[in-house]
Design goal:
The protein is α/β, with parallel strands linked by helices. The chain is built from eight helices and eight strands, in the order E-H-E-E-H-H-H-E-H-E-E-H-H-E-H-E. The strands form two sheets. The chain has a four-stranded mixed β-sheet with strand order 2-3-1-4. A four-stranded mixed β-sheet has the order 6-5-7-8. It comes from Clostridium algidicarnis.
Length: about 300
């Protein structure tokens, strides 16, 4: 029984991908067969099974794995040509190095090689799954696919999702670039200022709330808040973390000790402090405060 027929031209090398799928099913004790033929430059691969094991469920599973194979081939072909040109045409303000960097990020995402932040990974996975569903739908409708024809006539439809991913990568790249420039300016400002406080303890509770104390054990968080209000930073979006960072930049402590870092709910907050204050930062996870006991300060 023929489950699926795959047609492609000599320029493509899809047979190893199909063999990998057959091996996956073999490991599940499902034996599939492959029948290959060629007419001039056109190749035909038929994926077959014994009539006794045929079922719609098996067809569904084969279509799923073959869709993934075809996705890989299409992405490989598109990555070789279209992504670079898309970035170049739509983001003319980027220089060559930035375009290459963004192109690599997009390719990594499309090829599953990326390490992503959770909030962006969901978006990318949704877009990629949308592409896979389009390919799988074609297989289900026809029980065969001409890969070259599919790329020729359906690539515009697929590019909608690929361009969405590309736009999101560029957006995140620009945000990251602006953030790094902001950090660089803050670090420069900190480096040229004199310290107004010798030591600051940032204490993070088990609930993820913050307190800031000097080396005598006095809370100075309210002082940081007052400084923000005095400078008329009455932006309602300002939170405790913004206030702490503002206070640290204003006072430039010689030493910043962060207690209970494992309780921090916003890792970017810690990352920003580390990047701006670098060698001044010390992470403590072993003192009394970190263990939920009163912190003993010098007198």
């Amino acid at each position: 029984m023929v489950l699926l027929t795959i047609i492609y031209e000599s320029g493509l090398d899809i047979a190893p991908n199909i063999q990998d799928v057959v091996e996956i099913f073999k490991n599940k004790d499902i034996n599939l067969g492959i029948c290959e033929s060629q007419n001039n430059n056109t190749h035909f691969i038929k994926i077959m099974c014994d009539d006794k094991i045929y079922s719609e469920s098996l067809v569904e599973k084969v279509n799923y794995y073959i869709s993934d194979c075809i996705y890989d081939i299409i992405i490989r072909l598109i990555c070789e040509e279209d992504i670079y040109n898309f970035i170049l045409d739509n983001y003319f303000f980027l220089n060559e190095e930035e375009i290459k960097d963004i192109e690599k990020q997009i390719i990594d995402i499309l090829k599953y090689n990326n390490s992503l932040k959770e909030e962006t990974s969901i978006y990318y996975e949704n877009r990629k799954n949308h592409i896979l569903l389009k390919i799988k739908s074609c297989l289900e409708e026809n029980r065969q696919i001409n890969i070259d024809g599919y790329i020729t006539f359906r690539v515009k439809d697929l590019m909608v999702d690929i361009e969405d991913i590309s736009n999101k990568v560029v957006e995140n790249y620009m945000i990251e670039r602006e953030y790094n420039e902001f950090i660089r300016l803050l670090k420069y400002f900190v480096d040229i200022q004199e310290s107004k406080i010798d030591k600051v303890n940032i204490i993070i509770s088990k609930e993820g709330t913050y307190d800031v104390k000097d080396d005598k054990g006095n809370s100075i968080l309210n002082t940081f808040v007052a400084d923000v209000l005095e400078n008329e930073f009455n932006d309602p979006s300002i939170n405790t973390e913004d206030i702490i960072i503002s206070g640290l930049i204003t006072n430039v402590p010689n030493s910043i000790i962060i207690h209970g870092i494992s309780y921090c709910l916003n890792k970017e907050f810690i990352e920003t402090i580390n990047k701006v204050f670098t060698y001044r930062v010390e992470i403590c996870d072993g003192c009394n405060e970190c263990k939920g006991k009163p912190l003993i300060f010098s007198t």
